Amino acid sequence: MTTAVATMHEWEVAPGRVLAVAQGDITRFDTDAIVNAANSGLAGGGGVDGAIHRAGGPAIMEDLERRYGPLGVRSCPTGGAVVSAAGDLPARWVIHAVGPVWHGGTRGEADLLASAYATSLRLADELGAASVAFPSISTGVYGYPQALAADVAVLTLAEALVAASSVRRVTLVAYGAESARTLTDAVRRVAPAT
Predict the structure, then answer these.
(1) How far apart are CA 34 and CA 31, in angstroms?
(2) Active-site residue flag, 88
(3) Strands, DSSP E only, in the chain?
(4) Domains of the chain, start order
């Protein structure tokens, strides 16, 4: 890990499989893969998406175009994810996950969010990644309440991590202290008492 990220909490979900919460800049996180909270057009954007594209440089968008087609043609469904090169980022790959827009929880948002996390971890596993860093998907402009999203993330990733073959460490990276506390609280709620 770089000094840009500080680990706050760790949970060993199975022998040699760790789910961690950290605070810092995901674009500076030294890991095999980072997950991007992307839009369905894989067009870049604001928040985490914009930060990843700025830090990674044009190579990310160029690789997305090469693999999935030009802007306006390529797309990824809500709950899905795709892979690209990481450009100038310390990571080897970026996994672009499309989370749901929050509509009050009445349109299958929890299932779609769980799918975005599970699909991303499956792709990382298929790539042979040992470590993956996730942002809090859908909690920015998509409006998903942070505490509800944190519970979905922790439950989904803990289950998927146990079943993974190559991934050994998953870190939920929060930019701010309040988000980091929300994620840590979710891990503490889900983790068995030790």
Answers:
(1) 7
(2) no
(3) 5-14, 17-24, 33-38, 81-85, 93-98, 131-134, 169-174
(4) 5-190 (3.40.220.10)
Q: For residues 132 and 194, which has the higher predicted lDDT (pLDDT)? A: 132
When computed from its CA atoms, the radius of gyration of the chain, rounded to whole angstroms, is 15
What counts of helices (H) and strands (E) characterise the chain?
Answer: 5, 7
The per-residue pLDDT for range 114-170, each reduced to its tens digit, is 999 999 999 999 999 999 999 999 999 999 999 999 999 999 999 999 999 999 999
User: Residue 37 in contact with residue 45, Cβ under 8 Å?
Assistant: no
| Catalytic residue (one of 32, 49, 63, 151) | 49
Task: Characterize 11-22 residue by residue with b for buried, 16 or more Cβ atoms within 10 angstroms of its Cβ, and e for exposed.
Answer: bebeeebbbbbb
